[in-house]
Amino acid sequence: ERERTFVMVKPDGVKRGLIGEIVSRFEQRGLKLVAGKFIEIPRDLAEEHYGEHREKDFFEGLVEFITSGPVFAMVWEGQDATRQVRSMVGETDPAESPAGTIRGDLGLDLGRNVVHASDHEDPGSNEREIDLFFDEEELIDYERPD
Ligand code: CMP
């Protein structure tokens, strides 16, 4: 099923100059970029985005980290885009991510894992995250040859 999914390059990835590398991987895979913005996440948005982790002991550190610098937020579209992106991103922990995945190749540790991507095991998380970060008119529809 054709769908849209949310991805963002986290502050560690931005500061290390990895935006282009990451965008390039999704482009080469044939996914279509439908939205992108370079922003500093306000604290309230960070807390809402990571709401499912509110009770975890790493929550405060997670919010501090994601608001510690700019992020590059994106929406990518394609066949099973959420699952496809997830497999390209790898496991949460870079140490458990195979070479060839974004986190396996570029991630440093559990916190500094370069990218966030919607969870394919959490149905609706893609739509929820897209709505949180983008207005409808920021999602651009155009033809991309396959
Ligand atoms: P992500 O899946 O993008 O969103 C939740 C983030 O929480 C996850 O990436 C990790 O970066 C972070 N995270 C998960 N577990 C831990 C942990 N035990 N300590 C610190 N950060 C964590």
Structure description:
- The chain is α+β, with helices and mostly antiparallel strands.
- It has one domain (2-138): Alpha-Beta Plaits (2-Layer Sandwich).
- The chain is 36% helix and 19% strand.
- It is built from 7 helices and 4 strands; from the N terminus they run E-H-H-E-H-H-E-H-H-E-H.
- It has helices at residues 11-15, 19-28, 43-49, 59-66, 81-89, 102-106, 125-133; strands at 2-9, 32-39, 71-79, 115-117.
- It has a 4-stranded antiparallel sheet with strand order 2-3-1-4, sandwiched between helices.
- The model has no long low-confidence stretch (mean pLDDT 97).
- The site of adenosine-3',5'-cyclic-monophosphate has 7 residues, from loops.
Keywords:
alpha+beta; Alpha-Beta Plaits; nucleotide-binding; 4-stranded antiparallel beta sheet; 7 helices; 146 residues; globular; 19% strand; binds adenosine-3',5'-cyclic-monophosphate
Please provide a brief summary of the model.
36% of the residues lie in helices and 19% in strands. The protein is α+β, with helices and mostly antiparallel strands and 146 residues long.
Helical segment count: 7
* Rg from alpha-carbon coordinates: 14 Å
- CATH top-level class: Alpha Beta
Query: What best-fitting shape do the alpha-carbon axes yield?
Result: globular
Distinct ligands, ions and cofactors found in the model = adenosine-3',5'-cyclic-monophosphate
Q: Helix share of residues? A: 25-40%
The CATH topology assignment is Alpha-Beta Plaits
- What separation lies between the terminal Cα atoms? 15 Å
What structural class is derived from the secondary structure elements? alpha+beta
Mean pLDDT: 97
CATH architecture: 2-Layer Sandwich
Q: How many domains make up the 3D coordinates?
A: 1
Flag low-confidence runs: none
Number of strands: 4
Largest sheet: 4 strands, antiparallel
Order of helices and strands: EHHEHHEHHEH
* Beta-strand residue percentage: 15-25%
* The named CATH superfamily: Nucleoside diphosphate kinase-like domain
Strand neighbour order, sheet with most strands: 2-3-1-4
GO cellular component, one term: cytoplasm
Keywords: ATP-binding, Cytoplasm, Kinase, Magnesium, Metal-binding, Nucleotide metabolism, Nucleotide-binding, Phosphoprotein, Transferase
EC number: 2.7.4.6
Cofactor: Mg(2+)
